[in-house]
Amino acid sequence: MRDGQRVTVYTPTWTLDGKRGTLTIRERNEWAFLGSDANRDGIEDAVAFGTWKVVRGTGQYAGTTGGGRSAHAGLGENWNARYEGLLTAS
């Protein structure tokens, strides 16, 4: 609970695979639940903000560093996210 609002912290790891290698990022985001189910799918709607950073790269992404911020809108099973940041290749 934060100031009376329920918050859930997630720390997922994502691996993005491509023709030139893989990029693995770790994210930490905090979800605040809205107390409603606008689209009536049985799952409470929520919003989140977070940060992410590169933890590993292979192929042409080897040695890549960086990170950024993320924003999320979770409408039950429908989930939208935006990731922004800066990557540096070595």
Q: Can you walk me through this structure?
A:
The model has no long low-confidence stretch (mean pLDDT 94). Strands 1, 2, 3, 4, 5 and 6 form a 6-stranded antiparallel β-sheet that branches. The chain contains no helices and 6 strands. It starts with 6 loop residues before the first strand and ends with a strand. With 90 residues, the chain is an all-beta fold.
Q: What characteristics describe this protein?
A:
single chain; 90 residues; mainly beta
Give the total of domains: 1
How much strand content do the residues show? over 45%
Mean pLDDT: 94
Order of helices and strands: EEEEEE
Fraction of helical residues: under 10%
Over the alpha carbons, how many angstroms does the gyration radius reach? 16 Å
Q: How would you classify the helix and strand content by structural class?
A: mainly beta
Give me a quick take on this structure:
The protein has 90 residues and is mainly β. It contains no helices and 6 strands. Strands 1, 2, 3, 4, 5 and 6 form a 6-stranded antiparallel sheet that branches.
